[in-house]
Amino acid sequence: MTDLAVRRRRSARRGSHALAHVVLAIGGLLMAFPFVWQILMSLSTNSEVQSVTPHFWPSELHWENYAVVFERLPFLSQLRTSVLITVIRTLAQILLCTLAGYAFARMRFFGRGYILAVVLSILMVPSQVYLISQYQIVQGLGWLNTLIGIVAPGLFSAFGTFLMYTAFQNLPDELEEAARLDGASPLRVFWNVMLPLVRPSINVLAILTALWSWNELLWPLVVTTYQENMPLSAGLATLVGDKNNTSYPVIMAASVMALAPILLLFIVLQRRVIDGLAFSGMK
Amino acid sequence: MSSPLARLRPARATRRGGAEAQARRRDGAWPWLFVLPLLIGIVTFYLWPILQTFYFSFTEWGVFGGSTWTGFDNYVRLVMDPKLYQSIGNTLLYTVIVLLGIPIAIVIATLLNLPGLRFAAVYRVLFFLPYIAMPTAVAMVWRIIFNGDFGILNWALGLVGIDGPYWTSTPGYALVAVAIVGLWSSLGFAIIVLGAGLKSIPPEYYEAAELDGASAWRRFTSITVPLLTPSIFFVTVVTTIASFQLFDLLYAILGSSNPIVPKSMSLVYFFYREGFVLNDKGYAAAIAMVILAIIGIATFIQFRLQRRWVVSD
């Protein structure tokens, strides 16, 4: 033990941190293993996946499993739905939450404090409490199994409003005053002067909304009944109950493709995503 | 600010007051244009539904639509329903196992924070990937890993002489399996938040301790952990609330047609099953109210405990 401590101190001074690397490398491999395994299984045959002694490397790489996904599953329409709900919700939340957040933080109107408090109180309520009634509304509008039905409630966000409200509140007064004295309309002040100043928070909102939209299961599961109308998250989850579709490599290929867009986006934007999530810490 | 005294203040203040008064006058209908698009949606899809669900929880729904007021019937039935206690127990078991990830995250965040550590960015990405990955998509591979006949986990356990169970078809084990996945996927979040907390500890503390001859372990337990308690508390609260919402992983790993579902449900799964599989919406509304109450109580308890163990400066 003392020997180890001495060695650790010595290596720490040298800056190599050998022991830390051992722990982190083992941990990192364990974290990455399921993804690697998923890719390997997606390139195997069904019998290789189901063999009792594992095949760590497929005898042949079966890329055709990826083609089979498009033939046998409504993967393209699910991908389209996932992309559309993610893009539409992200844009809508950015627009609606920045507008409202700005007004709550920097304008004066009757009942502002009370209205804001009511909106923020939604943050403390778990989603099950409004889910049944949301379903009733969407059903009443004839929106079950439609894109707009999946998208609708998620266009509006109390959390996003809170995020933008705090961002606008932290800005100094001077710029806004100068613009107003120059006679710019509130909409111009908002759009040309204030909005560019809260871009970091808009990034955080965009990242969180996109992540949540892409991954969310419960709501799409409730408002869709047919595979073709589901986003990828619900489509994959309902595949599990489907007894006819037990070709494991094909399911693996489909889930690799469902994971890929967000994971690649994260690897490209990693600093921003990590900082954003560390900063907000919610959801 | 509209008092005549305001005019006697220094120039800057007067200009400020003038601008504000002017702004106030000119705001007029503008704030409403900014707020209304959001408010209409919030009222329609959140506020009204919250009130309506509360009302629904006192009603019984007919097979062909229509509901009748039944007072506290749903709540009485719920209190007597063993499935409620089973699902609370399952949710707690899951939460406790996932919370075990926090000590692991403290160690990993500390290691990642070592000065001059190489590949820190690579490690951070590896630990963080599971947190942002789609739960239903990663569930697909975890089902294979946990498979009782050909899963690699039982093969590995076999190497050390352990006969692994049928993870996803044995009630108790199923939750442990799902919780292991839950721990795996939430670890990255805890590491990032704790890492941010570590950065705010002044390095002078460590330098002073080192001069006094404190060992690395002593520095960890006497400086790092106490000064990190606010972050640890935050991560614990957020992880607990998120764990109480367990649904996606459980649903996707077990599969909806799995016969052990009734014994392995979480609270949210119980809610979903009653409301949308068995179509008993009034009963599900009552379950939703109970979930609201449980999360409220758990958060309250955690904030009370905060005073005991969080070190604040």
Question: How would you describe the overall organization of this protein?
Answer:
The complex is a heterodimer of chains A (283) and B (313). By secondary structure, chain A is mostly helical. Chain A has two domains: 65 residues, no CATH class; 172 residues, Orthogonal Bundle (MetI-like fold). Helices cover 72% and strands 0% of the residues of chain A. Chain A contains 15 helices and no strands. Chain A is globular and about 75 Å long. Chain A starts with a helix and ends with a helix. The mean pLDDT of chain A is 87. With 313 residues, chain B is mainly α. Chain B has two domains: 53 residues, no CATH class; 235 residues, MetI-like fold. In chain B, strands 1-2 form a two-stranded antiparallel ribbon. In chain B, a hairpin with a 5-residue loop joins strand 1 and strand 2. The N terminus of chain B is likely disordered. At the A-B interface, helix 1, helix 2, helix 5, helix 6 and helix 7 of A face helix 1, helix 2, helix 5, helix 6 and helix 7 of B.
Provide tags for this entry.
heterodimer; A: 283 residues; mainly alpha; MetI-like fold; 2 domains; 15 helices; 72% helix; globular; B: 313 residues; two-stranded antiparallel ribbon; 2 strands; disordered N terminus
Tell me the series of helices and strands of chain A, N- to C-terminal: HHHHHHHHHHHHHHH
Uncertain regions spanning at least 5 consecutive residues of chain B: 1-19
C-alpha termini separation of chain B: 37 Å
- Topology of chain B as a string of helices (H) and strands (E): HHEEHHHHHHHHHHHHH
Number of domains of chain B: 2
**Oligomer category:** heterodimer
CATH superfamily of the largest domain in chain B: MetI-like
The description of the largest β-sheet of chain B is:
2 strands, antiparallel
The whole-number mean of residue pLDDT values of chain A reads 87
Structural class of chain B: mainly alpha
Q: Count every beta strand of chain B, where a strand is a DSSP E run of 2 or more residues.
A: 2
Broad CATH class of the largest domain in chain A: Mainly Alpha
Given this structure, which CATH class of the largest domain in chain B is correct?
Mainly Alpha
Average of pLDDT of chain B = 87
The greatest interface here is: A-B, 106 and 103 residues
Named CATH topology of the largest domain in chain B: MetI-like fold
Main β-sheet description of chain A = none
CATH superfamily of the largest domain in chain A: MetI-like
